[in-house]
Structure formats: structure tokens, C-alpha cells
Specification:
The chain has 14 helices and two strands. The protein is an all-alpha fold. The chain has two domains: 63 residues, no CATH class; 239 residues, MetI-like (MetI-like fold). The protein has a two-stranded antiparallel ribbon. A hairpin with a 2-residue loop joins β1 and β2. α3 packs antiparallel against α13 and α8 packs antiparallel against α11. The longest helix has 36 residues. The radius of gyration is 28 Å and the shape is flat. The protein starts with 21 loop residues before the first helix and ends with a helix. 23% of the residues are buried.
Length: 313
């Protein structure tokens, strides 16, 4: 019996299956994921390469003519293109406004005020509704003879009954209010989810130290939301640059006189109205690289913060 449990391999009973080396078993998983990776590379990679390629050509899809950088030169001399860029940059103002609105709302909802479940539902509801539906609703609200102006006139405030969507001085501001209304719920849910996961001991220690409610939020809550604040800011900044087509198209279609045009509207018009696929591809390429740069900046910030937190530990 003692001899059977010695380390001589001959003493162990033979197994019907042979265990493969760990390295060989690890390579098997790559074959499982390879079809999905190749499919995604084709679905996302091929359109990107095609758009970049078409940006150097003119004509229709049946007969393309290589023109080099002529499409880029043409759009850089187009006033509508620069107006579109200016409006996209103006929409970036929505990001800090949404943070200023969403953060206090999340803090108050975290405190479980009376009726907090209903308020969470009300705040998050606009975000789950389609942007097209939101845009159509606000178009009835902001029309010159719409709901808002009718109410203002009934209150005797005729001076405030403005042409919110038909005046070039107010149209961008009106669209921004619609975007903020829908997107702020996303920020509230993000911040609230992060606060729920925060350790309660930190808040209890702060309360034992005698800090006020405002001091607790400023010195305890907000610093621990730094990561999710960065994520929300970068995500919404990318949206303001490349994801506002639905709002603008439904509310104004870029009018009046291109005063509310954005890059997505500019691309859409060049591609489907003017059939200038090369110009549309050139603007799409520029927009894509701007988005990639912003994503790169976000990951750089996250890596830097991770290094600092690791060093602090």
C-alpha cells in the first residue's frame, strides 16, 4: 500500500483521457472567437476604409474620378461647413450644463427624498424615448404659434413670444434645450448608480466628524464621482459632435438659412441632395478622426488617474 502512493508514475492508474498542455488549450479559444472578430472587422472596418477612400474621389458610385485632396479643399472653402462646425462646438456648451443639472438631481435622489421612485422615473423617462419623438413634441412647443408662445401671449407676455425655431438668433439655443432635456436623465442615472455603490462607511465617518450636508457632498461625494463624471463628459462631447442629427433634422432640418446646420446635416445634404459623395465622405472622415481623438483623450485621462490612484495606494 505504501509503495502505491510513492511518486513513481507507474503506480498511478491510467486515465482514459489525456489532458492537453495549457498552451494548446489556450489557443483553442482564439478559433472560437475568430469568426465573430472577422465579422466585426468586416462590418465596421470595411465601411470606414470605403469612406476614407471615397473622400479622394468625385462623381457617382458608377463612375468615380480620383481628385486627391480637392474634396477637402472644397469643403474648407464652404461657409456652410464652417457654420456647421461652429454649431457643433456651441452644442458642447450642453455638456457642462447637463453636469450641473444632473449632479444635484442625482444627489437629491440618492438622499431618498419623499417620492424618489417617481422622480427617478420622471427624470429618466425622456432618455428612453426616441430623439425623433422628443423633437416632434418640442417642434409643436416651439413653433411661433405653438404651445409655448400661446401660453406666453395668454399671460400678457407678448414680448417673450419669440420665433424659437425660425429665428437664426434663437434656433441653436432652442435645439440645445431639447438635447439637455433628453440627455440629462442619462447623467442622473450614471451618477446615482455610482453613488449607490459607494461605501457607506465614508459618509458615516464624515458625519461623525461633524461636516455639514454641503461639505459632505463637496468633499466626499463629488470626488468619488470623478471617474463617472469624466466618462459622462467625454461621451456627451462625442454626442454633441456626431450624434445630434435627429434633433436638428426634426426641429429645423438645418434652417433657417443653414443657421442650425451641423456636420451630420451637412454630410446628409451633400450625399443625398447634391449627390456629392466625395464631399460627404471627406466630412465624415474628418468627423471620425475627431471622435477617435476624443476617445483617445478619454482613455489617456483614465490611465493617468489610474496611475495616480495606484501610486497613492
Amino acid at each position: 500500500m505504501k509503495q502505491f502512493f510513492t511518486r513513481n508514475p507507474e503506480n498511478y492508474p491510467s486515465s482514459p483521457t489525456t489532458i492537453k498542455p495549457r498552451r494548446d488549450r489556450g489557443l483553442v479559444w482564439y478559433f472560437y472567437v475568430a469568426p465573430a472578430v472577422l465579422m466585426m472587422a468586416f462590418v465596421f472596418g470595411y465601411p470606414v476604409v470605403s469612406v476614407i477612400r471615397y473622400s479622394f474621389y468625385a462623381g457617382n458610385m458608377n463612375r468615380l474620378i480620383y481628385v486627391g485632396l480637392a474634396n477637402y479643399n472644397a469643403i474648407f472653402h464652404d461657409d456652410v461647413f464652417w457654420t456647421s462646425i461652429k454649431n457643433n462646438l456651441l452644442f458642447l456648451i450642453c455638456v457642462p450644463i447637463m453636469i450641473v443639472i444632473a449632479l444635484p438631481l442625482a444627489i437629491f435622489l440618492y438622499e431618498s427624498i419623499k417620492g424618489w421612485k417617481f422622480y427617478r422615473f420622471v427624470v429618466f423617462l425622456p432618455y428612453v424615448i426616441s430623439a425623433t419623438v422628443i423633437g416632434i413634441t418640442f417642434s409643436y412647443l416651439y413653433q411661433y404659434n405653438g404651445v409655448l408662445n400661446t401660453y406666453l401671449r395668454s399671460m400678457g407676455l407678448h414680448a417673450l413670444a419669440l420665433d424659437w425655431l425660425g429665428n437664426s438668433h434663437y434656433v441653436v439655443m432652442s435645439i440645445m434645450s431639447v438635447i439637455i432635456y433628453q440627455q440629462v436623465g442619462f447623467g442622473v442615472i450614471l451618477f446615482l448608480a455610482q453613488m449607490i455603490n459607494l461605501p457607506s462607511e465614508v459618509f458615516e465617518a464624515a458625519e461623525l466628524d461633524g461636516v455639514t450636508w454641503w461639505q459632505k457632498q463637496w468633499h466626499v461625494t463629488i470626488p468619488q464621482l470623478k471617474g463617472v463624471l469624466e466618462f459622462f463628459a467625454i461621451t456627451e462631447a462625442i454626442n454633441m459632435l456626431s450624434w445630434v442629427f435627429n434633433y436638428v433634422y426634426v426641429l429645423t432640418s438645418g434652417g433657417p438659412a443653414n443657421s442650425s446646420s451641423v456636420l451630420e446635416i451637412y454630410i446628409w445634404r451633400n450625399a443625398f441632395f447634391f449627390h456629392s459623395y466625395g464631399s460627404a465622405s471627406a466630412v465624415s472622415t474628418i468627423l471620425m478622426f475627431v471622435s477617435v481623438i476624443m476617445i483617445f483623450i478619454y482613455f489617456r485621462i483614465r490611465n493617468r488617474n489610474s496611475v495616480k490612484e495606484g501610486g497613492a495606494l
